[in-house]
């Protein structure tokens, strides 16, 4: 960006867009990663609940056939 003060200021501004600034790419990516981790945990909990209910239903269905 050159040695002029305006060039240094512009270089600093662009640098903060990448790391350390208010709306930096680094903060945006960290935020997105956190959201994806939350989504992963939520979907895993859904899968775990589904498997639990499915197992219970299979057990009940098996008992009904024996007594039916």
Task: Give the SSE map.
Layout lengths: L4 H14 L6 H43 L1
| Estimated structural class | mainly alpha
Number of continuous helical runs = 2
Mean pLDDT: 91
Low-confidence stretches: none
Query: What fraction, in percent, of the residue positions are helical?
Result: over 70%
For the biggest sheet, the summary is: none
General shape: rod-shaped
| Residues in β-strands, percent | under 5%
Q: Give the radius of gyration.
A: 27 Å
Q: How many strand elements? A: 0
Distance between the termini: 83 Å
Give me the strand/helix succession.
Answer: HH
In short:
By secondary structure, the chain is mainly α.
Features:
68 residues, mainly alpha, 2 helices
Describe the structure.
The protein has 2 helices and no strands. The termini are far apart. It is 84% helix and 0% strand. It is mostly helical. The mean pLDDT is 91.
């Amino acid at each position: 960006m050159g040695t002029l003060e305006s060039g240094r200021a512009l270089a600093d501004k662009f640098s903060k867009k990448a790391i350390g600034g208010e709306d930096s790419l680094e903060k945006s990516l960290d935020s997105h990663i956190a959201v994806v981790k939350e989504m992963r945990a939520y979907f895993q909990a859904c899968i775990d609940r589904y498997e639990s209910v499915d197992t219970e239903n299979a057990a009940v269905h098996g008992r009904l056939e024996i007594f039916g």
